Amino acid sequence: YVVHEGCDHIFFVGFLGAGKSTLARNLGSLFHRSHVDTDRLVERLLGKSVSEVFAEDGEGAFRDAETGELAALARRKSLLVSCGGGIVERSKNCGLMHEMGVVVYLEGDLADSLRQIRCPERRPDLGSNAHAAAVLTRRRPLYEEAADITVDIRNKTFEQVALESG
Ligand code: S3P
C-alpha cells in the first residue's frame, strides 16, 4: 500500500447501533474537525438510500461504492469518519484506513445494536435477531484486527468514550 502521509483521519468502526456517527459528529463539534459518514457518502454518490442500494443493486454494489468513497478520503485531511458497520468485511478497506489514519473500534453489546436494528429501514436483511447475532459474532474478530484503539462503550458516558478514543 502507498502510505498517504498526513491524512490524519480517525475512523470509527463497530456494529450497527454502536454510536459511531453520534460520537464522530460530537467530537467534530468539540474539536472543530469535519465529520463524514461513509453511508452518507455512498448515498450521495448513488443518489439513493442505503436500503434502496441493497434492495435494488445488491450488497456487492454497496460494498464497491463504500470502498471507492473510502479511498477518495485520501485527498482530504484530519477527518473524523464514521464507517458503516460492514466496512471491515473487506481487508482492502482496513488497509486503506490504516494508510490514512487510526481506527477506533467502538465495542458495544448486541442488545444495544438490536435495539438500533429494530428500525427495519437501516438494514432490512439484518431484521432477525438471530441473523444479526451471527453477523456480529463473525465480525467481532474483524473489528478487533482492524482496531488501533478499542473502546468498550457499554455503560459509559459520551465524555468517557471520547476520552478513551484518544
Ligand atoms: C451495514 C451497516 C450500515 C450500512 C449498511 C451495511 C452492515 O451502517 O453501512 O446497512 O453491513 O452492518 P451503520 O453501521 O452505520 O448502520
TrEMBL record:
<feature type="binding site">
    <location>
        <position position="39"/>
    </location>
    <ligand>
        <name>substrate</name>
    </ligand>
</feature>
<keyword id="KW-0808">Transferase</keyword>
<keyword id="KW-0963">Cytoplasm</keyword>
<feature type="binding site">
    <location>
        <begin position="17"/>
        <end position="22"/>
    </location>
    <ligand>
        <name>ATP</name>
    </ligand>
</feature>
<dbReference type="GO" id="GO:0000287">
    <property type="term" value="F:magnesium ion binding"/>
</dbReference>
<comment type="subunit">
    <text>Monomer.</text>
</comment>
<keyword id="KW-0418">Kinase</keyword>
<keyword id="KW-0067">ATP-binding</keyword>
<feature type="binding site">
    <location>
        <position position="139"/>
    </location>
    <ligand>
        <name>substrate</name>
    </ligand>
</feature>
<dbReference type="GO" id="GO:0004765">
    <property type="term" value="F:shikimate kinase activity"/>
</dbReference>
<feature type="binding site">
    <location>
        <position position="85"/>
    </location>
    <ligand>
        <name>substrate</name>
    </ligand>
</feature>
<protein>
    <recommendedName>
        <fullName>Shikimate kinase</fullName>
        <ecNumber>2.7.1.71</ecNumber>
    </recommendedName>
</protein>
<comment type="function">
    <text>Catalyzes the specific phosphorylation of the 3-hydroxyl group of shikimic acid using ATP as a cosubstrate.</text>
</comment>
<dbReference type="GO" id="GO:0009423">
    <property type="term" value="P:chorismate biosynthetic process"/>
</dbReference>
<dbReference type="InterPro" id="IPR031322">
    <property type="entry name" value="Shikimate/glucono_kinase"/>
</dbReference>
<dbReference type="GO" id="GO:0005829">
    <property type="term" value="C:cytosol"/>
</dbReference>
<dbReference type="GO" id="GO:0008652">
    <property type="term" value="P:amino acid biosynthetic process"/>
</dbReference>
<keyword id="KW-0479">Metal-binding</keyword>
<comment type="pathway">
    <text>Metabolic intermediate biosynthesis; chorismate biosynthesis; chorismate from D-erythrose 4-phosphate and phosphoenolpyruvate: step 5/7.</text>
</comment>
<dbReference type="Pfam" id="PF01202">
    <property type="entry name" value="SKI"/>
</dbReference>
<keyword id="KW-0460">Magnesium</keyword>
<dbReference type="GO" id="GO:0005524">
    <property type="term" value="F:ATP binding"/>
</dbReference>
<comment type="similarity">
    <text>Belongs to the shikimate kinase family.</text>
</comment>
<dbReference type="InterPro" id="IPR000623">
    <property type="entry name" value="Shikimate_kinase/TSH1"/>
</dbReference>
<dbReference type="GO" id="GO:0009073">
    <property type="term" value="P:aromatic amino acid family biosynthetic process"/>
</dbReference>
<feature type="binding site">
    <location>
        <position position="63"/>
    </location>
    <ligand>
        <name>substrate</name>
    </ligand>
</feature>
<keyword id="KW-0547">Nucleotide-binding</keyword>
<feature type="binding site">
    <location>
        <position position="21"/>
    </location>
    <ligand>
        <name>Mg(2+)</name>
    </ligand>
</feature>
<keyword id="KW-0028">Amino-acid biosynthesis</keyword>
<dbReference type="InterPro" id="IPR023000">
    <property type="entry name" value="Shikimate_kinase_CS"/>
</dbReference>
<keyword id="KW-0057">Aromatic amino acid biosynthesis</keyword>
<feature type="binding site">
    <location>
        <position position="123"/>
    </location>
    <ligand>
        <name>ATP</name>
    </ligand>
</feature>
<dbReference type="InterPro" id="IPR027417">
    <property type="entry name" value="P-loop_NTPase"/>
</dbReference>
